[in-house]
Amino acid sequence: MSDSGGSVSGQGEGAGPAGPPGAGDGTRAVRAGLPKPVRHEPTLPGPVFAAHFHLPGEVTGPYAYGRDDNPTWTLLERAIGELEAPGREGVETLVFASGMAAVSSVLFSQLSAGDTVVLPEDGYQALPLVRGQLEAYGIEVRTAPTRGDAQLDVLDGARLLWIESPSNPGLDVCDIRRLVEAAHARGALVAVDNTLATPLGQRPLELGADFSVASGTKQLTGHGDVLLGYVTGHDTQAMAAVRHWRKIVGAIAGPMEAWLAHRSIATLQLRVDRQNASALVLAGALRKRPEVTGLRYPGLPDDPSHKVASQQMRRYGCVVSFTLPTRARADRFLDALRLVDDATSFGGLRSTAERRGRWGGDPVPEGFIRFSVGAEDPEDLVADVLRALDESDS
Fold first, then answer.
1. What number of other Cβ atoms are within 10 A of residue 59's Cβ?
2. Using an 8 Å Cβ cutoff, are 272 and 201 in contact?
C-alpha cells in the first residue's frame, strides 16, 4: 500500500490523475482518488483493516494508529477533494463515521463558550438537537430561515455561519456567495451543508465558503448501505482543529465503509444525472395534480428558488417535496406506491418517500411528502406515483 500513502489533499504524492485539465464530471468521478497504477495491483486497492501499523523508532510517515489515519481513508479523501474543489491546491478533506459526526466536528471544533453561531431554522432535523448542546456549552445560537437570505439579518458578532442550501426538507435556496461575503466582512467563518446538492451540483468552496460539509450516506454513495460524512476546507488552521476533533472523539469511518464509498463515487455522475432528470420529470407531472400543493423543486423554472439556484447550482438534486391535503391521504399515497420505498433517507438508486411530519421537529404540514427520486425508468416512476395518487383519493 505504499502507493496510497501521503497527503489527504489534492493529488498528493502517489495519487493518479483524476483526468486532464477541464475534464468532465464523469471522467473526474471515475478516476477520483485513484493511486498511480502499479503493475499487477488492483486499480482501487482493497480496504485496509488495521488498528496499528509497524512503527519502529521515531513516529514518522503517514500511518501510525487507526484512529488517526488509514490508507483507505486517504484515497477516499482525495477523491472527494477532487470533486469538491477540482484543481485547487491546499484543500483538505476529512471523512467521518456519519454526516452528523462531520457536522459536529465543524461546530464544536470552531466554537467556544461565548461565541455566537447562526443556524438555519429550517435545516436538517438534527440541528435543534445540536443547538441544545451548543447552548449547554455556553454558545449563543441564532436562527433564521434559508429563504430570502434571512440569515444576513442575524450575522453581527457571529463566529460561524451555517448554511444549508437547498434546505432539507423544504428545498429553499439562499445566495451562498452573498451570505459568505457578508459573513467574512464580519469576521465569521462559513460552513455549507452540501448533502443535497452533492459536489456535482454545487461547490461551496468556489462560492467562497470555508467548509463544505456533507453526509456521504445520501447521494454521494447512493446505495443506501453506507453511513459516512466528510468535511472539506481550505483553511489550514481550521481544518487542523477539525482533524483534532475527529481524533479525540473517535468518530472515524470504517475501512469497509470508506472503500464502498470510493467505489460508489465512480458512478456518481451517472446516478446524479439520471436522478436529477427524473426528478424534473416527476415534478412536472405533480404540478398538474390538483390535490398537490406546495410543490418544490429548484429545477422548475417557476420554483421560488430557481433564479438563485440557477446561478450557483450546476444540478438541482434528486429530492422533490410536496403536500397532500391530509395526513391520512399522504399515508394512503405512500402505502399505494409499488416502486418507492417508505424510508427516511434520500439520494439512493431506489426511490424513497416519506411523510416527513411523522418524525416531528420539521416545520411542515402533516401531509408533507419528501420524495427522493431514484434511478428507475422515469416513465415507470411517474406512472406509479400518478396511480398511487388516484388510489389514495378515497
1. 7
2. yes
> According to DSSP H, which parts of the chain are helical?
25-31, 71-84, 99-110, 127-136, 176-185, 236-249, 255-265, 268-286, 306-312, 327-336, 378-392
Cα distance between residue 211 and residue 213, in whole Å: 6
Q: How far apart are CA 73 and CA 68, in angstroms?
A: 10
Residue from 161, 223, 173, 229 nearest 201 by CA:
173
Could you tell me which residues are beta bridge partners of residue 190? 161
Distance of CA 237 to the CA centre of its chain: 23
Q: Which domains does the chain have, with CATH numbers?
A: 2-265 (3.40.640.10), 269-392 (3.90.1150.10)
For residues 49 and 95, is the Cβ–Cβ distance under 8 A?
A: no
Residue type for 79, please?
Answer: A
Crossing angle of helices 236-249/99-110, nearest 10°? 120
**What is the model's pLDDT at position 61?**
83
For 305-325, the DSSP string reads: THHHHHHH-SS--SEEEEE-S
Q: Is 77 helix (H, G, I), strand (E, B) or coil?
A: helix
Nearest to 211 by CA among 126, 125, 102, 309: 102
- Gap between the Cα atoms of 130 and 136, Å rounded: 10
Give me the pLDDT at residue 13, please. Answer: 43
With cut-offs at 50, 70 and 90, classify the pLDDT of residue 271: very high
Strands 189-193 and 229-233: unpaired
Residue among 132, 204, 198 at smallest CA distance from 168: 198
Asked whether residue 95 carries a pLDDT value surpassing 90, the answer given is yes
Q: If you average pLDDT over residues 229-253, what whole number do you get? A: 97
Gap between the Cα atoms of 110 and 213, Å rounded: 14
pLDDT at 47 over 60: yes
Of 78, 55, 82, whose CA–CA distance to 66 is shortest? 55
pLDDT tens, 188-202? 999 999 999 999 999
pTM value is 0.93
